[in-house]
């Protein structure tokens, strides 16, 4: 089946090349080394925020926290910058957060629609319109935003791009599509990617998916795995994990490809499962491109001051 999401998944290597170019061009807008940064988003964007925050700290670039914009972000912690990820730029919770931070904490928005409400509220905007999508579910926008931020940390994207091209060319193992339960694991910064992989399979294929930090999976969640399960590790698998997973009867998958390329593989699996189940991946149930809440609270100056002091 030819769908928007299928085409968008296939376009990711090209988008990542443009992300590397954009990161170089927009370097002055990206978080500086040593800054204390909060990264926010909703849904997929929040999972990407978590991955970036953990990666930035692991590389010694500065203290970095990630929060869902849909929850109360502690803006009073003395952040040097807020980075907001929002494909549409219209998500109510992100817009409200930016309004609350206006004039008090410098804000940077990565968005596919720079003239959106979020883009207009931000102090700085990075235009990722080339990675915007027609599909409801996020694939290329999310990975492109992350790759741009990785490039801003000095990561060479060439290996990730090569791995993604390989993942898009390879044939998915047919046995994967016959599994009934899917678990995605990560370590360090790839835990957020594991959460996003599970979300994609859940959104697109309505499949039973779970995600965990790899070491935490051993502390109880492994009990769900059996001969119907596929367990995928994005990034290096901890020593002994394969043997433990396979002892449950589950199929274990892990290799040395770039973890973001491994996420592309999970996106492809989601579409393949949807096709097998007769579902249209462009029309996921109960999901919309942007969550805009009717009658939602929008902070005034006094509201923003109270939040910052809390």
Keywords:
5-stranded parallel β-sheet; Rossmann fold; 13 helices; GlmS/FrlB_SIS; alpha/beta; 310 residues; repeat; SIS_dom; 4-stranded parallel β-sheet
Q: How many DSSP E strands? A: 9
Radius of gyration: 19 Å
Enumerate how many helices there are, as a single number. 13
> What's the rounded overall pLDDT mean?
90
Estimate what percentage of residues fall within beta strands: 5-15%
Largest sheet: 5 strands, parallel
Query: Could you tell me how far the N terminus lies from the C terminus, measured between alpha carbons in angstroms?
Result: 51 Å
Number of domains: 2
**What is the 3D form?**
globular
Give the gist of this structure.
The protein has 310 residues and is an alpha/beta fold.
Architecture overview:
Residues 27-159 form the SIS domain. InterPro entries: GlmS/AgaS_SIS, GlmS/FrlB_SIS, SIS_dom, SIS_dom_sf. With 310 residues, the chain is an alpha/beta fold. It has 2 domains: 4-153, Glucose-6-phosphate isomerase like protein, domain 1 (Rossmann fold, 3-Layer(aba) Sandwich), CATH 3.40.50; 157-277, 3-Layer(aba) Sandwich (Rossmann fold), CATH 3.40.50.10490. It is 43% helix and 15% strand. The chain contains 13 helices and 9 strands. It has helices at 4-10, 12-25, 44-58, 92-101, 117-121, 140-152, 158-169, 174-177, 191-205, 214-217, 241-246, 259-276, 301-309; strands at 37-41, 64-68, 81-86, 107-111, 124-127, 181-186, 208-213, 229-234, 251-253. The strands form 2 sheets. Strands 2-1-3-4-5 form a 5-stranded parallel beta sheet, sandwiched between helices. The protein has a 4-stranded parallel beta sheet with strand order 7-6-8-9. Helix 7 packs parallel to helix 12 (259-276). The longest helix has 18 residues, at 259-276. The relative contact order is 0.16. The model is unreliable at 296-310 (pLDDT under 50).
